[in-house]
């Protein structure tokens, strides 16, 4: 078997990993919370702590125990976590330290240290060349795993054995490794000398390497976050196996003073209630090494499970952490709701999009699609309003092609009667001026909403800039509300549409001959100019009303704070405005720093322009002037906090696209841990690619430690 012992991936490789945290996770013992204490490292060089397992381990016993040794597996595999009795006499750490097995392993460890210091290590004297060959062999395996992971490709086939790699059904991993052996004669010669029990091509070895890679990526993300405050973005989806997948994204300002978003993990839970989801978020953050107390804002969709004011995740998280954490409803989600609600208030719009769906289905008929020469129609999706814009755009560009298609089908006796009848009805509906008018109006309104929807998904988009974009789009839609705009659109559609056949004049009822008729109640024809005018203004009012209601500055104090950090605003660096933002992190505000910073930055921005042109923004000010701002830490903190606020959970949706690519119909037996690791490695490919060179040696050393030197590497 190629399987490895299940040790946490964050334990020491060359020396004990004596981690020191400000606050260690707590466990309940008899109703009292107890934690690991870093003071226990004092006289115990051998002691190490794993964040992943929240447990203590013995470094020499892990590294130097014999396979048949009686060393307590608590300190080597599962981990010691009985904090209540950790330092009691005759128990816990003291009991382990006094055991003969531990003392023997510790003596072997110290002996190795002496040999390393004097340059007489056995591996160095006897087997250096073989160790290099072993590392070269495993390096090729890591390269194959990295390639398949980054490209979201499956690993395994029907056969998993090393000897079956040249046969059918061996899968991409073995096929890629076999190809590498053919292209690299030196690797092929090394492979022939590798012991059969250490070829490291089984799925267990793949999982172990993927685990270590995922752990190292997580460690890098935590390192990038550092001591910064961060925003969490959370969303969930069920995959085809029915498993709930919870995507947790963190947004922070990195060491280069750039807003950055990273996928921390894909978690899962058996229950879907708000309390369980809240506990899962806190647990995953803590397990990764991030302090939940550093959360400065939270971004979710508008489902009551997440946004509930009393029992939603956003409220429960604040209650558990005992502090105020602003909640932001995803702007992309809100834009979707604006379109869906506003454009469905009028029956005419519902009928129009129903017609669009009927055209889509009609053009997909096998016999009809051969005649169609226009652009492919888009399918309308309830969960993606951008599909409405795509559909309307195609219909307007291919209007003549669609009309030609419907006429040809209508006049061709070769088509079944029901198809010709359907074509006649669709052609008649398309020929109505109201159809063209609604299409043009919907296209114009949705086109104004498309740019902010796209830009909100950008990695560096902050909350304040996102709100400015949405407000600009709303203003553009409001500017359409004029008689001039209506008449221009109405006349354009009237000229582009064939005049309908004149209708018979209605004969006045002779019964009213002796009466004075003051008002007639009649049904307005949908093509009537008055009805189209009403429809036009009603739709614009509905869109603008929805946008103002959903994107109104609900937390005016916080939005004023963000606004006061905009270099273009008259309240730039106003201490009274900025203070609520710093209160979120209990940061003291120093008025003198703001006075100096406002004067300094104002003068600098007058005489210089941003390196990339344009106008000065919060991001550009922080990036360009971070050196002098380091002398004004409360100003620096305020700018970093403002850029940390996010506006969209689009990145969570992107991670679900990666999930769909990885969990195909042929990979449904995959365990969640492997699936989650593969998603993270594929999604954060810029970090995963570091295993090609920069991180490879560290990965080899960790694997060597976990593999118990079955194939010695060092």
Automatic annotation (TrEMBL):
SUPFAM superfamilies: Ribonuclease H-like
One Pfam family hit: DUF4371
Stretches assigned to the TTF-type domain: 32-121
Cited InterPro entries: DUF4371, RNaseH-like_sf, Znf_TTF
Protein name: TTF-type domain-containing protein
Organism: Sander lucioperca
């Amino acid at each position: 078997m190629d399987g490895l012992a299940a040790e946490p991936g964050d334990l020491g490789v060359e020396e004990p990993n004596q981690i020191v945290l400000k606050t260690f996770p707590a466990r309940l013992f008899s109703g009292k919370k107890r934690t690991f204490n870093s003071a226990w490292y004092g006289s115990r060089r051998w002691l190490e702590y794993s964040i992943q397992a929240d447990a203590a381990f013995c470094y020499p016993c892990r590294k130097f125990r014999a396979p048949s040794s009686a060393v307590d597996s608590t300190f080597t595999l599962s981990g010691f976590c009985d904090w209540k009795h950790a330092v009691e006499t005759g128990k816990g750490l003291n009991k382990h330290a006094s055991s003969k097995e531990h003392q023997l392993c510790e003596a072997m460890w110290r002996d190795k240290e002496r040999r390393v210091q004097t340059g007489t290590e056995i591996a160095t004297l006897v087997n250096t060349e073989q160790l290099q060959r072993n590392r070269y062999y495993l390096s090729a395996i890591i390269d194959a795993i990295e390639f398949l992971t980054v490209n979201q490709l499956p690993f395994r086939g029907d056969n998993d054995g090393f000897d079956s790699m040249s046969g059918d059904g061996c899968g991409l991993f073995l096929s890629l490794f076999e190809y590498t052996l053919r292209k690299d004669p030196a690797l092929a010669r090394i492979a022939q000398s590798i012991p059969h029990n250490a070829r490291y091509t089984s799925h267990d070895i793949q999982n172990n390497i993927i685990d270590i890679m995922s752990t190292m990526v997580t460690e890098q993300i935590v390192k990038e976050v550092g001591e910064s405050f961060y925003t969490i973005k959370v969303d969930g989806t069920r995959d085809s196996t029915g498993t709930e997948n919870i995507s947790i994204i963190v947004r922070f300002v990195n060491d280069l003073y750039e807003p950055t978003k990273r996928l921390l993990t894909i978690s899962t839970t058996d229950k879907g209630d708000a309390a369980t989801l809240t506990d899962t978020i806190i647990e995953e953050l803590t397990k990764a090494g991030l302090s939940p107390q550093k959360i400065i804002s939270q971004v979710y969709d508008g489902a009551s499970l997440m946004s509930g004011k009393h029992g939603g995740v956003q409220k429960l998280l604040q209650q558990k952490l005992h502090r105020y954490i602003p909640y932001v409803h995803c702007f992309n989600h809100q834009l979707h709701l604006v379109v869906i609600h506003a454009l469905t208030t009028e029956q005419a719009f519902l009928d129009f999009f129903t017609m669009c769906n009927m055209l889509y289905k009609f053009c997909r008929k096998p016999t009809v699609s051969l005649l169609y020469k226009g652009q492919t129609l888009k399918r309308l999706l309830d969960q993606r309003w951008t599909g409405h814009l795509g559909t309307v755009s195609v219909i307007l560009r291919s209007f003549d092609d669609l009309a030609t298609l419907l006429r040809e089908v209508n006049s061709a006796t070769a088509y079944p009667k029901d198809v010709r009848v359907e074509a006649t009805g669709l052609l008649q509906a398309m020929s109505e001026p109201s159809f063209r008018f609604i299409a043009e109006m919907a296209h114009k309104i949705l086109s104004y909403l498309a740019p902010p929807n796209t830009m909100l998904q950008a990695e560096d988009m902050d909350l304040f800039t996102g709100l400015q974009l949405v407000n600009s789009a709303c203003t553009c839609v409001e500017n359409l509300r004029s008689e001039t705009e209506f008449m221009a659109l109405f006349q354009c559609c009237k000229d582009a549409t064939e005049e309908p056949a004149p209708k018979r004049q209605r004969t006045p009822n002779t019964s009213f001959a002796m009466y004075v008729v003051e008002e007639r109640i009649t049904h307005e024809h949908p093509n009537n100019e008055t009805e189209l005018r009403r429809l036009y203004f009603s739709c614009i009012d509905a869109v603008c009303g929805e946008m103002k209601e959903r994107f109104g500055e609900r937390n005016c104090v916080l939005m004023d704070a963000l606004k006061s950090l905009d270099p273009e605003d008259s309240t730039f660096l106003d201490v009274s405005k900025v203070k609520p933002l710093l209160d979120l992190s209990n940061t003291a505000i120093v008025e003198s720093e703001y006075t100096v910073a406002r004067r300094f930055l104002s003068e600098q921005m007058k005489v210089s322009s941003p390196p990339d042109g344009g106008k000065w923004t919060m991001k550009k000010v922080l990036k360009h002037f971070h050196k002098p701002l380091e002398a004004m830490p409360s100003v620096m903190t305020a700018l970093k906090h403002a850029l940390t606020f996010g506006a969209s959970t689009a990145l969570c949706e992107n991670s679900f696209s990666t999930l769909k690519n990885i969990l195909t119909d042929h990979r449904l037996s995959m365990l969640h841990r492997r699936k989650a690791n593969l998603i993270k490695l594929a999604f954060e490919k810029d970090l995963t690619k570091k295993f090609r060179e920069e991180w490879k040696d560290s990965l080899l050393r960790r694997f060597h430690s976990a593999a118990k030197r079955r194939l010695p590497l060092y």
